């Protein structure tokens, strides 16, 4: 088993953990966390493919690396948008829940309008 | 050869101090004592690790960068521990 | 089992432990802290996979900016913890979700263990065409040369994300300043850090962006450090967030994708195709695009963390 395979198995497990967290966590912020975990696992899989593609004097294939850098930035912007949506939901309705009819009202956001 | 021994000894000592800091984090009763253990031990640990890695830096500029990293970590950890201590003191004796 | 392999298995094990902690922790704040540490370990993994540029990007964006964003959100949403816990799915549903996740993970693991040998790779093609742009860093070559279209579209996606975040402002605050006014003690520790660290941060950020042409680094990593310095200054109260209807701010936001688009159309007009760099001017054009990109990226990333406008535009 090579070093790349170790991290590939770790990435597969991270994808599984992220998927579980996304399905099961009641708080939307935990879902966002789990989604980021899922994404990071996918990126490491790209990294393993890049590592295995080492050739022509490079220690790692540069094309998947560039794709992962783009992916990290776009995933961050998606997380920022998701967090902004969640905070706005909390400001507007007083509760950060995705359930349609919920008695979970927690009061106003201390800094919001 | 002597430089290799210096690297091994310094990095091991640094690792030991990190371990001591973590033991303090886990065993001390409240936030302020934990902060004290963490910052003291971790700063010393980082300094020792940086010292141990100096012989392995490729060039003088590499060594200078290592020292810069050490100073920046010192600055950041000192400031952040002050901020956490302020927040812990302000939120009452139960934290 | 060599020593190196054992170390890597230990690293992977610690990462999985942190991931499990992120999912299972009771308090959201603790879960976010675990996620930030996970991000830093991930940067180590990237270094072991010989992808240093990605390690820098992961540590800066995935660990740093993401961490600030999520920690701020966790602090503001602390009041919703207990009510939301009541909506936890029943044990049967959780078991089903666990089975589904385990199946997906097992399928991925099986696919990964059966990857074709010898591995297909684009490295020889990237090496053979490296002379087209004159940059020594292969990843920057790919980002700004071979896949420049992807990078340009990514700039547009970031712009759309900023517009999306701004559109969440209440109507009467449209065009206002993002976030609450940070009142930190001007003689205090945070202001001290902002004053001392920012000059170094700016130098390091510009250096990282500049050296990405030949060493690991690049526009994204450098821009993230610049964004972090601006956020630090805003959080220490040394400068207020700019109003989002400021013309200069909006011009700087479109400078990056604008310059990229202009160069691309120039390639269409004077060269062979959209985004084709003429051979003699490839490096100066790429550096010009990168300069505009770093400016726009730094502002965009900081604004994404700062959030939608919550105050009027007046100071």
Descriptive notes:
- The complex is a heterotrimer of chains A (113), B (95) and C (315).
- With 113 residues, chain A is mostly helical.
- Chain A has a single domain, classed as Helix Hairpins, CATH 1.10.287.
- Chain A has 3 helices and no strands.
- In chain A, helix 1 runs antiparallel to helix 2 and helix 2 packs antiparallel against helix 3.
- In chain A, 60% of the residues are buried.
- With 95 residues, chain B is an all-alpha fold.
- Chain B contains 3 helices and no strands.
- Chain B is elongated, with a radius of gyration of 16 Å.
- Chain B starts with a helix and ends in a 5-residue tail after the last helix.
- With 315 residues, chain C is mainly alpha-helical.
- Helices cover 70% and strands 0% of the residues of chain C.
- Chain C has 12 helices and no strands.
- In chain C, helix 3 runs parallel beside helix 10.
- The longest helix of chain C has 25 residues.
- The radius of gyration of chain C is 23 Å and the shape is globular.
- At the A-C interface, helix 1, helix 2 and helix 3 of A face helix 1, helix 2, helix 3, helix 4 and helix 5 of C.
Provide key terms for this protein.
heterotrimer; A: 113 residues; Helix Hairpins; C: 315 residues; mainly alpha; 2 domains
Question: Briefly, what is this?
Answer:
Chain A has 113 residues and is mainly α.
Number of domains of chain C: 2
**Total helix count of chain C?**
12
Largest sheet of chain C: none
**Helical percent range of chain B?**
over 70%
What fraction of residues of chain B sit in β-strands?
under 5%
Radius of gyration of chain B: 16 Å
Structural class of chain B: mainly alpha
Order of helices and strands of chain C: HHHHHHHHHHHH
Q: Most extensive interface, residues per chain?
A: A-C, 91 and 100 residues
Number of domains of chain B: 1
The shape of chain C is globular
Low-confidence stretches of chain B: none
How many strands in all of chain C?
0
Q: In sequence order, what are the helices and strands of chain B, one letter per element?
A: HHH
Helix residue percentage of chain C: 55-70%
Can you lay out the helices and strands and say which pair or pack?
The complex is a heterotrimer of chains A (113), B (95) and C (315).
Chain A lengths: L2 H22 L3 H25 L9 H32 L20
Chain B lengths: L1 H26 L3 H23 L6 H31 L5
Chain C lengths: L2 H22 L3 H21 L3 H25 L4 H5 L5 H23 L9 H6 L9 H9 L1 H19 L22 H23 L7 H17 L11 H24 L11 H25 L9
């Amino acid at each position: 088993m090579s070093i790349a395979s170790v991290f590939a198995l770790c990435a597969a497990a991270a994808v599984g953990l992220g998927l579980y967290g996304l399905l099961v966590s009641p708080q939307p912020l935990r879902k966002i966390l789990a989604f980021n975990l899922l994404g990071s696992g996918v990126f490491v899989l790209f990294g393993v493919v890049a590592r295995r593609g080492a050739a022509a004097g490079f220690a790692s294939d540069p094309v998947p690396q560039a794709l992962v850098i783009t992916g990290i930035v776009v995933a961050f912007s998606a997380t920022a948008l998701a967090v902004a949506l969640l905070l706005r939901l909390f400001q507007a309705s007083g509760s950060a829940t995705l359930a349609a009819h919920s008695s979970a009202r927690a009061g106003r956001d201390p800094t919001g309008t | 050869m002597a430089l290799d021994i210096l690297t091994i000894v310094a990095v091991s000592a640094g690792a030991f101090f990190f371990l001591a800091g973590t033991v303090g984090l886990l065993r001390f009763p409240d936030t302020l004592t934990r902060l004290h253990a963490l910052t003291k031990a971790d700063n010393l640990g980082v300094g020792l690790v940086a010292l141990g890695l100096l012989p392995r830096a490729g060039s003088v500029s590499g060594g200078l960068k290592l020292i810069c990293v050490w100073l920046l970590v010192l600055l950041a950890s000192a400031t952040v521990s002050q901020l956490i201590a302020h927040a812990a003191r302000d939120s009452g004796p139960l934290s | 089992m060599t020593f190196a392999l054992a170390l890597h298995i230990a690293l992977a094990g610690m990462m999985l432990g942190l991931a499990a902690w992120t999912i299972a922790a009771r308090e959201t704040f603790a879960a976010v802290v675990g996620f930030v540490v996970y991000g830093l370990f991930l940067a180590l993994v990237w270094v072991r996979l010989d992808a240093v540029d990605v390690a820098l990007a992961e540590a800066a964006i995935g660990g740093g900016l993401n961490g600030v964003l999520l920690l701020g959100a966790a602090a503001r949403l602390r009041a919703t913890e207990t009510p939301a816990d009541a909506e936890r799915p029943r044990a049967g549903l959780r078991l089903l979700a666990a089975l589904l996740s385990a199946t997906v993970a097992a399928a991925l693991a099986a696919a990964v263990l059966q990857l074709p040998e010898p591995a297909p790779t684009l490295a020889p093609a990237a090496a053979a065409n490296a002379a087209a742009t004159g940059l020594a860093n292969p990843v920057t070559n790919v980002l700004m040369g071979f896949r420049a279209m992807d990078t340009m579209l990514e700039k547009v996606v970031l712009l759309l994300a900023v517009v999306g975040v701004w559109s969440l402002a209440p109507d009467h605050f449209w065009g206002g300043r993002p976030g609450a006014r940070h009142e930190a003690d001007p003689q205090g520790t945070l202001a001290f850090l902002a004053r001392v660290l920012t000059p170094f941060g700016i130098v390091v950020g510009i250096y990282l962006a500049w050296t990405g042409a030949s060493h690991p680094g690049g526009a994204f990593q450098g821009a993230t450090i610049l964004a972090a310095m601006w956020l630090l200054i805003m959080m220490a109260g040394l400068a207020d967030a700019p109003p989002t209807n400021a013309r200069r701010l909006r011009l700087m936001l479109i400078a990056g994708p604008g310059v990229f688009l202009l160069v691309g159309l120039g390639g269409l007009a004077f060269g062979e195709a959209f985004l084709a760099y003429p051979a003699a001017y490839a490096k100066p054009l790429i550096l010009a695009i990168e300069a505009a990109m770093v400016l726009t990226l730094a502002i965009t990333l900081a604004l994404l963390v700062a959030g939608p406008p919550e105050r009027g535009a007046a100071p």
